[in-house]
Amino acid sequence: MNDTVNPPISGPVFLIEVTQIKPNPNQPRRDFNEDQLRELANSIREFGVLQPIIVTKIERETPTGTEVEYLLIAGERRLMASKLAGLERIPAIIRNVSLDKERLELAIVENIQRVNLNPIESARAYSRLQDEFKLTQREIAARIGKSREVIANGMRLLSLPQVIQDAVAEGKLSESQARLLLMIEDIPKQQALFEEIIRNNLSVREVKSKIAILKNEAEKAMPQAGDMAPVDPETIALQRELEEALGAKVKVEKAGASGKITINFHSAEEMYGLVQRLKEKHGSIPQGFSL
User: Fold this and answer.
1) Among the three residues 200, 221, 242, which one is the final residue of a domain in this structure?
2) H helical segments located in the chain
3) How many other C-beta atoms lie within 10 A of the C-beta of residue 76?
4) Active site annotation includes 76
């Protein structure tokens, strides 16, 4: 039960004392299954650590000389299991990363590539790469080896209410079901359907059917005249660009030459994140935006 390796890492391997290795503060995974850790520890006792961990070397000057320690970049499960197995040293590949920002970015990317994260953990890691390191979704996709659509769809999960995000992280709700819930803009109706999914263990097909009924009801309730005009293909393309840049659901409505742009959020934290991104790109909140 070793960590998933994607892609393989090569380089000189050193045996480093586990006490010299500091945990990675940027590990996207927050929860570690105790039973799986014990299984991995048993495997390590029998076969050893089959895949080296990745660390970066940190040297500090002290009154008595130079103090050396290592910061973990990838392989926290292997490090934890090795300590559990009683190992004093662990095989490691040392990456020379000098700048703190580069080290943090590399740590996040390595962990996304090498660890089976749940969808919410992955989405938060993508969001951090976008917010802290100013990477576009295409740049994140290139670093991780996934399509831009996968990154965009993953980040959209963070616009769901926290209770739904928690259900996805805990495996109570699938990523496909969660993405379907994003189609419902009415929060009370979204919450009601979420509760029905959990209560009745609805399949993806059943969820799609429920959403189709809700959308049909919403269309019948909409005013038939004097409202916003249909959105043209060019505006739809711009809407998608906005969603990619902000990592949130965006709605564009037009009435002749004017109209409005609405950005959806589901928590104060998400709202402040959106405001910060807009300020960074424009210096202030552009006119016509509704949060």
Assistant:
1) 221
2) 34-47, 76-84, 100-114, 119-133, 137-144, 148-156, 162-169, 175-181, 187-200, 204-221, 233-246, 268-282
3) 20
4) yes
- Please pick, among 76, 105, 121, 243, the residue that the annotation labels catalytic: 76
Find the helix or strand (DSSP H, E) in which 18 lies. none
pLDDT digits (tens, 9 = 90+) for 134-144: 888 888 888 87
Residue-number span of the structural domain to which 65 is assigned: 13-112
Rounded to two decimals, what is the model's pTM?
0.53
Give strand pairing partners of 70: 21, 57
Within a domain: 7: no
Residues of the chain with pLDDT under 50: 1-8, 225-226
Give the whole-angstrom CA distance, residue 163 versus residue 181: 13
With respect to residue 263, please indicate whether it lies within any of the assigned structural domains. Answer: yes
Q: Report the alpha-carbon distance of residue 22 to residue 53 in Å, rounded.
A: 12
Q: With beta carbons less than 8 A apart as the criterion, state whether 108 and 24 touch.
A: no
| CA separation for the pair 15, 140 (Å, rounded) | 32
